[in-house]
Amino acid sequence: MRLRDSIALVTGSSRGIGAEVARELSRRGAHVILHGRDCERLRALADVLGARTITADLLDPEAPRRVACEAGPVDIVVHCAGSGWAGDIAAMTEQDIDRLVRLNLTAPMLLTSSVLPGMLAAGRGHIAFVGSIAGLTPVAHEAVYAATKSGLLTYADSLRLEVARRGITVSTTAPSAVDTDFWKQRHYERRIPAMLAADRVGRTVVDVIEDEVPRRVIPRWLAVAPALRAFAPGLYRRLALRFG
Ligand SMILES: NC(=O)c1ccc[n+]([C@@H]2O[C@H](COP(=O)([O-])OP(=O)(O)OC[C@H]3O[C@@H](n4cnc5c(N)ncnc54)[C@H](OP(=O)(O)O)[C@@H]3O)[C@@H](O)[C@H]2O)c1
């Protein structure tokens, strides 16, 4: 995928991984459109990158279509906006579940539906999803979050098949824990895998787009976990019970 002079919309780029993806895309010559809810943060980053901004709360059912409309024709969309939820399943209210599913899964699907016709007409484009290792290996106390990310990865794989011969490529990046505000409300307690720096993840997402890699787990060695889950599910379950 040629990045120079491409137009790239990055959702959730006011901070965290999305902001790093936007910086890296800009460094490699793309014209970036930033998106988020926090106007001041968006403005500050836009001034540095010379980017356009779109402010929208993706929990609003109309927002994905509006974001696509305001962005106009784009070559690349990076779906990065998202949030987590950790705790006992039964403690989650219906509203908690609805909000997580809407932001992490429904919104990227709706936004994709809105940008896809333009990409199909142009015969080129790239749609990138920021998933999570939680979408490939189940996590206790994060069941709904894991389900949204799992759904997103399967959606991306299905989309890739559908658009395969029409000039459009689809990638997913599935990081383990990344040092962002995502972890503001809770502590990351594992030593392995170590917390990743957001700029490293941002660079990887852009490498994956540029090289049209279908799926990348970060850190790369962690891909062994979903592989073990697929090929030796009994052993995987025993290890998961032991190591969480
Ligand atoms: N951090 C991790 O450990 C980790 C690991 C694996 C995957 N991920 C995934 O990476 C993505 C980015 O996470 P992050 O770590 O960068 O989190 P973050 O620092 O909390 O950033 C979240 C981004 O999403 C935007 N956002 C949140 N709620 C929104 C809403 N309702 N409408 C529109 N935008 C909204 C935020 O914009 P505003 O601040 O402007 O509202 C912000 O730009 C998420 O999809 C997350 O699931 C994160």
Per-chain topology:
Layout: E1 7-10, H1 16-27, E2 31-36, H2 39-49, E3 52-55, H3 63-71, E4 76-79, H4 94-122, E5 125-130, H5 143-163, E6 168-175, H6 198-210, E7 215-218, H7 224-231, H8 233-243
Helix pairs in contact: 1-6, 3-4, 4-5, 7-8
Bound molecules: NADP nicotinamide-adenine-dinucleotide phosphate.
- Oligomeric nature of the chains: single chain
Helix tally equals 8
Q: Report the β-strand fraction as a percent range.
A: 5-15%
Strand arrangement, major sheet = 3-2-1-4-5-6-7
3D architecture notes:
The protein is of the alpha/beta class. It has one domain: Rossmann fold, CATH 3.40.50.720. It contains eight helices and seven strands, in the order E-H-E-H-E-H-E-H-E-H-E-H-E-H-H. It has helices spanning 16-27, 39-49, 63-71, 94-122, 143-163, 198-210, 224-231, 233-243, and strands at 7-10, 31-36, 52-55, 76-79, 125-130, 168-175, 215-218. It has a seven-stranded parallel sheet, sandwiched between helices. Helix 6 (198-210) links the parallel strand 6 (168-175) and strand 7. The longest helix is centred in the middle third of the chain and has 29 residues, at 94-122. The N and C termini lie far apart (38 Å). 37% of the residues are buried. The structure holds NADP nicotinamide-adenine-dinucleotide phosphate.
